[in-house]
Amino acid sequence: MRRWFPKSVSTNGIWLALFSPNDVALDPIGLCQALGRRGRDHGVQIFERCSVEEVLVDKEQKVVGVLTNQGQFETGCYVDATGIWCGTSRVNKLPAGHAIIAAHPATYTYLSTKRLPDKDIKSSTPIFTHVDEKNYLFMDESRTLCAGFTQDDFRSLSRQRILGQWTVPSPDWDKFYPTLNNLLNRCNILGETECGELVCSAESYTVDKNPVIGETAQVQGYYVATGFNGQGLAFAGGVGNLVAGLVCGETLPVDITRLEVTRFIDLHASSQYLIERVPEVAAKLFTNSYEYHQYQTARNLRTSPIYHQLKKAGAVFGEVMGYERPLWYTEEDAEGCFLSRKFLCQRSVIHSEIMHT
Description:
Blueprint (H helix, E strand, L loop, with lengths): L27 H14 L10 E6 L5 E6 L2 E4 L3 E3 L22 E12 L13 E3 L4 E5 L3 E6 L6 E2 L16 H14 L10 E10 L5 E4 L6 E5 L5 H16 L23 H13 L23 H6 L2 E6 L2 E7 L11 H15 L2
Parallel strand pairs: 4-12
Antiparallel strand pairs: 1-2, 2-3, 5-8, 5-9, 5-10, 6-7, 7-8, 11-12, 13-14
């Protein structure tokens, strides 16, 4: 590991590292422009400053057109891939006045500053991501980006007072300080650069850390592609290809069952549920989740009539579609006890052994 990073980045306490030499870091603006040019080369028309005012639906709940500030367009398919604004397009024929999607935006904060004063930093210097300290450091010959991904680093946006209008708060240096302090301990010359700019932005997250793709059950012809959990640009090309296949009725080359928009129930799209759950999901972005991982937030929302008796008897609960069900029993009081990592490892090993016998 020492050979890939400059001496200014401390590797103390790191005993195991994964190096992925085929990964690349791209300029987001440049990538978007390249995708746009590629689309135009294939006949795609791009209308800038064109806002969707309403998705038009007939009596049979089928998309028949789109009303925009530049006129009305007739179409049988509408693809909503608007990130944190997904699901905010007006659909008057629906009870809520818009499609309900189980995704919600959360803010994240990062520091952007100039190149670190280290001559060993090159454009090929890998991105440093520490999954235990929960921070990352991007260094090249022109700039430096750094951020953290603890649960405290993410904040769900408040409910919208006006549909489609989110309010992203200003960056908070006090909240960013714990992350900055950890980064300074790992790379002390970070303190020798100019103050830089603290940026607060927002991404769309889902309740299970998987994107939401497919045709909604609410309106025929209304497709969504959102909830990329901070990885939208990395997924853009592949997701665009999948959505195009869905719209054209083609057989997809991969199974997207775990990404289907219809995998959620109404509870998962509740703003109260999403606001509570999303920061925990966002904090898991750079961590390894076990197959039977159980989230701690937004729990005990659906329980059986004998839930308290089971809990008193020592039941340890897991969540399935928002419903709390007992997984096993312990002789000790299971108050507030959820799945332990040790149990998850053991269960995964047992499951693997069964599948291979």
